[in-house]
Amino acid sequence: MRVQREDGECNLRRVAETTEPVTMDKIVSLCRRRGFVFPSSEIYGGLGSTYDYGHYGVLAKNNIRSLWFQAMVQERDDMVALDSAIILNPRIWEASGHVSGFTDPLVDCRTCKLRFRADNLEQAQCGRKPSKHPGEFSECDLTEARQFNLMFQTHVGALEGEGSLAYLRPETAQGIFVNFKNVLQIARRKPPFGIAQVGKSFRNEITPGNFLFRLREFEQMEMEFFVPPAEADEWYRYWVDARYSWYTNLGLRESHLRKREHDADERSHYSSATTDLEYLYPIGWSELEGIANRGDYDLTQHTQHSGTKLEYVGQDGERYTPHVIEPAVSIDRILLALLVDAYDEEIVAERDRTVLRLHPRVSPIKAAILPLIGKNDEMVARAKALQGELRRRHMVEYDDGGAIGRRYRRQDEIGTPFAFTIDEQTLEDDTVTVRDRDSLAQERLPLAGVPDWLDDALERPWKTPKDD
Ligand code: GAP
């Protein structure tokens, strides 16, 4: 049964939809306004390309992390988890090639004192004349390009010196390779099997920017899948397809997601094949996740540098260095893609509505519980009892402040898929209305059935109503 709500929105169809593209400014502004993401260290003037996640940002990130973990570890027999240290023995970064090769070419401008990536000048703005690129304005005075290592340095122990130098990890992957033997022996695994890890990585990016896309501190989710060499290509293709489907199952529009295989000259030094899953961010098609065939590069390097043989030896004497397939992504880039994909503006009941059409399993809050009249003690008591029951299973939010239409709008902006409203009829017949964020449809449900109804609704497959 469809019912008429206070603001009458259920009788009103979508009368207009904005066609203009979603800009990064709109996403930044919504994240700020609704407390998803704040610029870091703001009261001290900020710190370039670091961000703090607020309440809803933390909840959304938790959901992304646990959906990834569920798909990569929980639902598989061939995967184990790992949480390695952030600061590792610095020899690891010599073996991996990061000390010598994890660099970007850098130029300084002696005039404006800004620093640019030498291979990216056409994307940068001159510090004195932003309409020009560095080097184009008559006053530009650029230095020769020099290689700049992206790893953050630190010191371990009380004395600073050559012997105490260490690095904040620039990727989580190396912590996995150096634990290969532990997992092989103690977890008694045999290729093909994978080790999955989630954690912070750090890169002193020269040209950061574009909000969550390129950060100096970000949370990576990486998995290294160890396979017999002859199966490497097959598993590489498998993981490219599996990771693509993970995103479409999360509701990302296929028109905004593509696979792009690297040409030989683009690949990292360790890779024999790489495919990027690219998303159409407001800055254009850009890497969301990379899937690489790393061959035996890492296990061989660590064998040579550590003197510990990292190989598989079967019971029948079979012996080989496994090859590695690696899907690698950051939660930050996933969240940015999901927010861009979800952002929608429309006019409903002659009023603007901004809505995040997030997959319900990604939405920070699963349901809002709203007494229609915030000053009605009976409605408030029923609503609070429902909140008490639902919060044991899901993140839900109780709100009795202001007109019901404004409360719906607030929930729309943070992507809450369902709202349960307690009204006069609830007091008579123990039913509530449930409002759907995307269709705005409302139906009446028995109050006692709400917890199970919500469980079922969150399990249902979901497809975005936005045009693909
Ligand atoms: N272990 C391989 C590796 O780290 P990468 O292409 O440098 O490969 C993998 O990074 C993923 O990590 C990227 O696809 C992206 O999702 C994320 N990532 C890398 N640098 C990032 C940054 N500065 N800010 C946010 N995410 C980043």
Could you characterize what this model shows?
With 468 residues, this protein is an alpha+beta fold. It has helices at residues 24-33, 55-74, 91-96, 98-101, 173-177, 180-186, 232-249, 297-306, 331-342, 377-390, 404-414, 424-429, 450-459; strands at residues 16-17, 37-39, 51-53, 79-82, 103-108, 115-117, 146-149, 153-155, 165-167, 193-202, 217-227, 257-261, 273-281, 284-295, 312-313, 319-320, 323-330, 343-348, 351-356, 367-371, 396-398, 418-422, 431-436, 442-446. The chain has a seven-stranded mixed β-sheet. A five-stranded mixed β-sheet has the order 21-20-22-23-24, sandwiched between helices. Strands 1-18-19 form a three-stranded antiparallel β-sheet. Helix 2 packs across helix 9. It is globular. Bound molecules: glycyl-adenosine-5'-phosphate. Residues 171, 173, 203, 205, 214-215, 218, 220, 222, 287, 289-290, 326, 328-330, 332-333 line the site of glycyl-adenosine-5'-phosphate.
Q: Categorize the overall geometry.
A: globular
Q: Give the biggest sheet.
A: 7 strands, mixed
- Return the structural class: alpha+beta
How many runs of DSSP E, i.e. beta strands?
24
Computed Rg? 26 Å
**Mean of all residue-level pLDDT scores:** 93
Estimate the helix proportion, in percent: 25-40%
**Assembly state:** single chain
From the structure above, extract its key features.
468 residues; disordered N terminus; alpha+beta; 7-stranded mixed sheet; 5-stranded mixed sheet; binds glycyl-adenosine-5'-phosphate
